[in-house]
Design goal:
CATH topology of the largest domain: Rossmann fold
Strand content: 5-15%
Order of helices and strands: HHEEEHHEHEHHHHHHEHHEHH
Structural class: alpha/beta
Number of helices: 15
Mean pLDDT: 84
Strand order of the largest sheet: 4-3-5-6-7
Helix content: 40-55%
Number of strands: 7
Length: about 450
């Protein structure tokens, strides 16, 4: 009995020591998490991050987690890719491309989440708001409750039934916002307000994808790879590698969510590290996919290239793209005026705009990629957009330059090296949007008194 008693005591002592050491390790990890990331560990945030990664990959959207791969996932829209793939986009005769509603049950038959019937009614109590734009607008739409809450602070909207319809899509750029609005209006949709959030895609995507492939810059994003029959094994190999990395990332997030240890700080830090390694590799493979040279001997059809585009100098190209962006906004404004809708145009913020965000080391590591061509596009193109925006204001269009809305905020808000924000960032964004809308209403609906002038940027003139 003494032997058994001693053995039990010995085992208990080992268990106590292990428990104490584990507890100390968890406490140390918790403190390191706070020191490195500038915020306390939150199990709910890590679980939400994993669920967002799983959901975004399954639906072909963007993850809401800290690192989403840094560059946009190439859509696997080739017909030589398995029909059962998750990443379904289909060519649309008016909008360029939409999600395939036959593959995603949460989509309406028109390729967007809102149903046509929900957008068709308009009465004095309801406030129907359409959100147009690319992936930034699409992700912002997921935080639409923040906009509703902020608008209800105004007596003008406090008793309104605010209904917000997300009509943005990843990769959309003008004239897709213009055509999307026209398309749904032609189908009978009725809106009280239209919010257009854009700028980045218009100035960067043509330069990064279409122009290098001799495709007309105003054609939809990555048009050549949507319609051309590729025979190159290297491209198909990259598609397979990217698909595999997405599968691995989703599998890792799923296993971590189901794990017994998912409450552990150490476990979550390790998962975050492993996820980032997969995301970094995904970034490299996707960038290679987007920038790979095509076989020069391949003859491209007009269907793939569209009209010839002969501008070569960067300043000329930026001016062409910005002028088209301005023209599309002007047309949307005219359509809204003709249909009794209020129009608000916001130039989206971007971390590559100089002095637009106070960044610590942690956020900078996530948000800034000095090697990616988007940095040069923003630095060269945003000032041109801002100069064209002065003409929007002169034409009494309710334009707001939001490039500097985070200039005095130090906490991390950017979630990748493109342009996307975390939940808090989008909530701040919507608060500022609501302020602009309420100010417009308080100023007697006079755009000249409520629009914001572009922030000055260092750049040579056109």
């Amino acid at each position: 009995m003494k032997y058994l008693s001693g053995t039990v005591k010995h085992c208990l002592a080992i268990i106590v020591i292990i428990t104490v050491l584990y507890g100390l390790s968890e406490c140390t990890a918790y403190m390191l998490h706070y020191i490195i990331k500038g915020e306390a560990f939150s199990l709910s945030e890590y679980n939400e991050k994993r669920l967002d990664i799983i959901s975004s990959i399954q639906t072909g959207g963007r993850a809401q987690g800290r690192d989403k791969g840094n560059v946009q996932r190439p859509e696997l829209y080739k017909r030589d890719v398995d029909e059962n793939t998750r990443y379904n986009e289909v060519i649309h005769p008016y909008l360029g491309f939409v999600r395939d509603p036959t593959k995603r049950r949460w989509l309406s038959q028109y390729g967007f989440p809102p149903t046509l019937s929900s957008m068709s009614g308009r009465d004095g109590r309801s406030l129907n708001i359409a959100i147009l734009g690319g992936s930034f607008a699409k992700q912002a739409g997921k935080r639409k409750r923040a906009l509703s809450a902020a608008l209800r602070k105004s007596p003008e909207y406090s008793n309104r039934n605010i209904r917000i319809f997300g009509l943005g899509e990843g990769g959309y750029k003008q004239p897709q916002q213009l055509f999307t609005l026209l398309y749904f209006l032609s189908l009978g949709s009725r809106f009280d307000m239209v919010i257009n959030i854009d700028g980045y895609n218009e100035i960067c995507l043509p330069i990064m994808t279409n122009i290098p492939k001799n495709v007309f810059p105003l054609y939809p994003y990555d048009w050549l790879k949507r319609v051309h029959d590729f025979k190159e094994t290297e491209l198909l190999s990259l598609v397979g590698e990217i698909s595999y990395l997405l599968d691995r990332r989703m599998e890792l997030a799923q296993r971590a969510s189901d794990s017994f240890f998912n409450y552990s700080v150490i476990f979550n830090i390790y998962w975050d590290y492993a996820d980032k390694k997969l995301a970094d590799e995904y970034t490299r493979r996707t960038l290679a996919y987007q920038t790979m040279e095509l076989d020069k001997t391949e003859r491209l059809s007009y269907r793939a290239t569209g009209p010839s585009f002969n501008l070569k100098k960067e300043k000329q190209i930026y001016s062409f793209l910005a002028e088209h962006w301005k023209r599309c906004s002007t047309l949307i404004n005219s359509i809204c005026n003709a249909n009794g809708m209020e129009y608000f145009h916001f130039l989206q913020p971007n971390q590559y705009v100089e002095n637009s965000k106070i960044m610590g080391r942690f956020e900078r590591k996530i948000a800034i990629n000095n090697r990616h061509p988007r940095k040069k596009c923003v630095a060269g193109g945003y000032p041109v957009l801002q100069r064209k925006a002065e003409q929007l204001l002169e034409n009494r269009i309710n334009f707001h330059d939001f490039t500097m809305i985070f200039s005095d905020i130090e906490k991390p808000l950017y979630e990748d090296s493109c342009c996307h924000l975390n939940n808090e960032g989008y909530d701040i964004f919507w608060d500022r949007v609501a302020d602009a809308i309420i100010q417009y209403q308080e100023n007697g609906r006079n755009p000249a008194k409520s629009g914001t002038s572009p922030a000055p940027q260092k750049d040579g003139r056109e």
